[in-house]
Design brief:
With about 250 residues, the protein is an alpha/beta fold. It contains eleven helices and nine strands. Helix 2 runs parallel beside helix 4. The longest helix is centred in the first third of the chain and has 12 residues.
Length: about 250
């Protein structure tokens, strides 16, 4: 782990994290890459609601949806505490350790859902699979660039913790090809990938936007590569012995 990665890990584990993000919110907040710009092109006339699983109060995918009502869900009490302190009243922050038993209830929080975003660094594939019947107008999901183009996901584990699963933290979620296949089977097509390589965007097949081939649209994670000083190929070599499920 390089110096920047250690500093990042220390900040996240310390009480300073609260004050760091509080100060950051005062000077402006944003998603990690160009997610807001992409969503601004996709939301159109969709319902003005969003549901996001896994977030940071100053860096979440739906942060640019200024006229939307939202529900943010995360298992970290400190993250939720900070969100309640700095976010507008139209956005509810809820602390919950989600699993396949309670995620369906959370998925019906809004009668009609505009944007669904899933980024939980673990059971992303399985949670998205459960939420697809809600029929969101737009889907954002994190893909694990360390998996390359292998059409795989990690097995479901209700107590999933990526740091406990593998010391690298790179073993979690699903590949871009696995998520694209899942969404395709439920009537959605891949239409965009964030510039930093981390999030994929889906619209219903009937939308006018062109469909992307996940093999061609794939990008490595710029943030992960920079923090670790490795490439996706290096990362895969570290975790390829771990258990995976191939997505049909």
């Amino acid at each position: 782990m390089n110096v920047q990665s250690r500093a990042h890990a220390f900040l996240r584990a310390s009480p300073l994290r609260y004050y760091f993000h509080l100060a950051k919110a005062r000077f402006g907040a944003s998603p990690q890459s160009d997610e807001s710009l992409i969503l601004s092109r996709l939301v159109g006339g969709c319902p003005r609601t969003f549901l996001e699983f896994g977030f940071h109060p100053t860096e979440y995918n739906c942060i640019g949806l200024k006229d939307f009502d939202g529900l943010l869900v995360d298992g970290d009490p400190q993250t939720v505490r900070l969100a309640r302190a700095i976010l507008p009243k139209r956005i509810e922050a809820r602390q919950s350790f989600i699993d396949l038993d309670n995620i369906k209830i959370l998925g019906t929080h809004f009668p009609k859902l505009g944007v669904l975003s899933v980024d939980v660094d673990g059971n992303d594939y399985w949670f998205l699979k459960e939420l697809l019947p809600v029929l969101p107008a737009v889907i954002v999901a994190e893909y694990n660039a360390s998996f390359g183009l292998n059409q795989i996901t990690v097995p479901y584990d209700p107590a999933f913790d990526r740091k406990e699963k593998h010391e690298s933290g790179w073993y979690h979620g699903a590949s871009i090809t696995a998520l694209a296949q899942l969404c395709k089977g439920h009537g959605y097509k891949l239409v965009a990938v964030s510039a930093a390589g981390g999030n994929v965007f889906f619209l219903p097949h009937g939308s006018e936007m062109a469909e992307l081939d996940p093999d061609q649209a794939y990008r490595e994670s710029a943030l992960r590569n920079r923090w670790s000083g490795t490439t996706a190929k290096d990362q895969w070599e570290r975790i390829k012995h771990m258990p995976f499920i191939e997505v049909p």
